[in-house]
Amino acid sequence: MPLTSSPIRRTIVLALAGTSLLTLSLSARAQDQAAAASTEGTTTLEEIVIDGGSGGVITADGYVGKSSATGAKVDTPFLQTPQSVSSVTKAQLEDRNPQNLIDTVAYTPGVRVNAYGFDPRFDSFSVRGFDVLYTGVFRDNLRQPGASSSVFKTEPYGLEGVSILRGPSSALYGATGAGGLFNLVTKRPTEETLREVQLQYGSHDRFQGQFDFSGAVNDTDPFYYRLTGLARNSDTEQVGVPDDRIYIAPAFTWQPDDDTRLTVLGEYSRTKTGGTAAYYYDSTAGKVTDFFSGNPAFNDSVQNQGRIGYEFEHRFNETFTFRQNVRASTLNIDADWAFAYAPNAIDPTLIDRSAGTFDERLSAIVIDNQLVSEFETGAFGHTLLTGVDLMKLRYRSLGGYGVSPPLDTNDPDRGDPVDPIPFSERVDQDQWQVGTYVQDQIRYNAWTLTLGGRYDWVSTDTDSTDLLGGTVTTLDQSDRAFSKRVGLTYEFDFGLAPYASYSTAFAPNAGFNQETDAPFKPTESEQEEIGVKYLLPNSNTMLSAALFNIDQDNGLYYTVVDLPTGPANVQVQRGKLRSRGLELEANTSLDNGLSLTASYTYTAMKIIEGPEATIDNDVSSVPRHQAALWAFYTMPEDTALDGVGVGGGARFIGSSYGNDENTMENGSRVLFDAALRYDFGALDKKMEGLALQVNATNIFDRRDPVCSAGFCYKDQGRTVIGSLKYTW
């Protein structure tokens, strides 16, 4: 996320997105296909929840995802889904040991990470050129709303995996963006007993302890539990920016019979980091310096967040299944920040710094009701999904502005006291969103036709209060939209499945455009996509390719504008963007111990309508070419290297422009990662379950500058983390 001189003064955007990745019994034909896929020359599929569950199940074998509920809101094989889908599986998470959501998705196609350099405050990334922080990150079937700096943080250790659907997807999920959606699947209770404890130590004095316990409550009752947690105390590469966290996530499942299931999911976390992590950008020299832009003595950011919800499922008979998913969530973030912006007019060794403080609170409740009907009409099989979902959101922010003592370039890491800054602005927002949707998956022999439509109503009330002058500005907005999707797939007997689809999306934008003093219009997008997926016979290997064209109207982007209070980096609304490209992906986990994921993405993202100086230009920080390769190899048993696993990866990020005027350029770069694991059980059976693993990212410590919308940052440097894990 770009830095702003005023986190509260910038436009508040509630870009709300939703998903509900629900699991139900497949039709007879789909069940047969799934069973056949699970036996194609490999081991039994690894299902990550009890009997499939209802929370975005990912059915996978090692690195290879085979089916999920992401693409259709009902569990559907990837080969039958008429859009680009993929997953980050449990096996990938274990091998790469990601420390944040950015690390988690860094090897998936179409994803641009690190566009804002090192910044532990937000998990900002884009897909097919479009930002997904507010509109595309979902949790357990339900939309995960965000506003301004109030964005829910993700702890990867609490995830079973990530299920990904690329492209506009409002026909089922309501308000979403053009790039697609990333559903974060929370760990759920398991039937088998699981006990795990782990200690970690890493770069920048990073200490972490974590645990994961799951299983049946007793031997007779149908009750299952899971409890996952961690505590971390850590510095980072930036002075005054810690990365401390406490996380606890209890879960409970009651399954009285095969037709009924109730799962309760909870979470609480407290994260402490910095109000800013940026380096000072010297506009005169046109480069990022090594000076920390903030003030180490005035740079705390503490976020508390929690959620509680349930997933209920009941199958009435072979035709009808009802599900209701509910979640209530809340977060509070309290932060101080300072921002070095220009040389001091008197002393050239000093750099003037502004300062501010803000307190934001966000709470939301989301309910999704679904009815699935499975039936036949002649030669056609139907999986008909109908549903209604509701979201109520409340957001409040307080902000104030002041000054910090200048940055002393002779002692740049010194912390300088800042006088208390009173709040001067308040924003209150209430938003309701109601959506009703229907989808029919129609199967005839090897053909699958997917038809879907949805209508949404959104109402947003915003009050902006000048706490010093006492004036209140009220803005009421009402938006409504119809979204649709049509897709067609054909499955050959040997595992090849070409497809074509058309889909649309919209996202209401609460708040107003500070550049025009007018409300934002909804952001709308549409996509045409053709592609092919290939599940290789007798090999646990999935290949896919996709060509896409996305047009987006009225998108929101950061830019510098001259306000009455002075220049500020705020969000404005641009006319039209077009993203065209190619995505290639390969995933495999073979019987010889080798697992691999590889991807290549070509993205040409142009400004079709916008400021005159930017028309026909590339959008900033969107590289034309990206590629990634990660492989992990477990040495054979009964050899001298039994118990050893070694992994390595490379991420190529091509050149891009640093601003929409295309007058500055980000150079290309390749970042290398590695992993090494040893299972002590291979040495002595008495130590079975004990393993040591070391993961390193950016092992050559490449820290090049990267600019986006004219603001510049630096890549995160090398991190090395050692983990000692014991399972029993």
Instruction: Measure the end-to-end span.
Output: 41 Å
How many domains is the backbone divided into?
A: 1
Overall helicity: under 10%
Which CATH architecture? Beta Barrel
* Share of β-strand residues: over 45%
Tally of alpha and pi helices: 4
Round the Cα radius of gyration to an integer and report it.
25 Å
Decide which structural class fits the backbone. mainly beta
Give the beta-strand count: 42
- Report mean pLDDT, rounded to a whole number: 90
Oligomer: single chain
CATH third-tier fold name = Maltoporin, Chain A
Q: What is the global morphology?
A: globular
Q: CATH homologous superfamily name?
A: TonB-dependent receptor, beta-barrel domain
Main β-sheet: number of strands, strand sense, barrel status? 22 strands, antiparallel, barrel
Low-confidence stretches: 1-54
Q: Please report the first level of CATH classification, the CATH class.
A: Mainly Beta
How would you portray this structure in words?
Strand 2 and strand 3 (about 65-70) form a beta hairpin. Helices cover about 5% and strands about 60% of the residues. The strands form 8 sheets. The chain has a 22-stranded antiparallel barrel. A 5-stranded mixed beta sheet has the order 5-11-12-9-10. Strands 1-2-3-4 form a 4-stranded antiparallel beta sheet, covered by helices on one side. The longest helix has 11 residues, at about 30-40. The protein has one domain (about 30-725): Beta Barrel (Maltoporin, Chain A). The protein has 4 helices and 42 strands. It has about 725 residues and is mainly beta. It starts with about 25 loop residues before the first helix and ends with a strand.
